[in-house]
Amino acid sequence: MIAAVAALALQPFRFERALDPSSKAPVEIVPDGSMYAHAQPDFGDLRIVDARGRQVPWRLEPQSRSAVRALPVLDQGTRNGRAVARVRTPVAVDRVTLVVPDRNFVGLATAFGSSDGKTWTRLSTTQIYDVNGATSARSTTVLLPPNDFHYLEFRASHVRRIDGVTVATVPKSERLEQLGAHVTHHGRDVVVDLGHAKVPVDELRVSAANARYDRPFTVFAGGTIAESGELVRLGAPTTTVIPVHLRTRYLRIHVENGDDPPLRGLTVTAWSTPRPLLLEGGHPGPFTVYYGAPRLRPPVYEWARLPVRALHLDAAQPASLGPERRNTSFHVVDTRSFFAKHRSLVSAALALCAAVVIAAGAFALRRT
Fold this sequence. Notes:
Elements: E1 15-19, E2 27-29, H1 33-38, E3 47-49, E4 58-60, E5 67-71, E6 75-79, E7 82-88, E8 95-99, E9 105-114, E10 121-132, E11 136-139, E12 141-143, E13 151-156, E14 164-169, E15 177-178, E16 182-186, E17 189-193, E18 199-207, E19 212-221, E20 224-234, E21 239-248, E22 250-255, E23 267-272, E24 277-279, E25 287-291, E26 317-318, E27 325-326, H2 338-341, H3 343-367
Parallel strand pairs: 2-26, 10-21
Antiparallel strand pairs: 1-25, 1-27, 2-24, 3-25, 4-24, 5-14, 6-7, 7-13, 8-12, 8-14, 9-10, 9-13, 10-11, 15-23, 16-17, 17-22, 18-21, 18-23, 19-20, 19-22
């Protein structure tokens, strides 16, 4: 049984969206750029109303924990000046992090896969680094394409050894997704426009067509340095992973070319972990979603306190938000006190009182 929720006054909300769930099950929605730009950062001003005009309780969808494990290294050493480590993976993995003891390095990690431990297929080359420039940055993540190999081998340059390999099987809801972005080149700079303000971005991936390069880079967000490091490629196609964890619209990547020509085919993509919202099931549709009330306090719903096992997440149905539109009921309500609203009138009244007091004093002096 759905509990009754207090009626909602619509005048504080600047924006509204239509939402038409296809079932009475819990509903999952993924915020888009417009919602990030116009709602409070934690969605504290988000309210949803069903077909009867009653509020639909919502909560941030609980995130499943990634199955992270440190795999025993079967073979470890060096080969042709590169640190090498092999591991056996019982299941397909999405993300790999190398455990290396070194500091202040910029190297390349190439991943190979094998089904039998004898024949190896090159999977990817990812830049790994630990730098102390304008900001400290470290990334030993190795990107892997989808595969079903049971053996993985990693060869890393510019590090002494690989002490361990940590792998993660990431739930589908937490896998990074590429953001829609408009990328433009301005001389030595690449500008990434995410389309709206306050869009979460967790990672940048950078590559170029030149067969060899080694160039310093700096990532700016709103005039502030977010990350810095070096872009490196030594032969095989290479991707540089830059963790950023920002909420912004514009990112600018400045590449220091020196006396060399600009990098050819320089590409930058932005990635983010989805941050879905889960709406209580059992409410009649269609729904209307309201937000854009910066002074509104966050809602307090019992639905948000229930244990995960009571949410029936396996039955949740995704729904798409309609276009953003202005809420015709919106208007600014002045909640200030009478004195705050009418300061000029109060000041005039006080001045008049002061004048009366002064005049009375002067009249009293004349009489004496």
